[in-house]
Amino acid sequence: MRPTLVRLLAPTIAAALALAGAARADDPTVYLTWNAPYGQPRATDVMVSDCDTTRADTLWLAFDPGKKSPTFMAMNASLLIHPRSGDSLSTSWSTDTLPGFNLRFLKPEADPVPGLGYPQPWKSNGVGLRTLESAGRAMKVHLFYAISYREATSIDRKIYVLARILIQRPAGGDPRCKEPVCIEWSEAEYGFSMSEDVTLEASGPNRFVSLNSPGGEVSVPYRKAASLHVWKPPTPH
Question: Which domains does the chain have, with CATH numbers?
Answer without folding.
Answer: 5-19+27-230 (2.60.40.680)
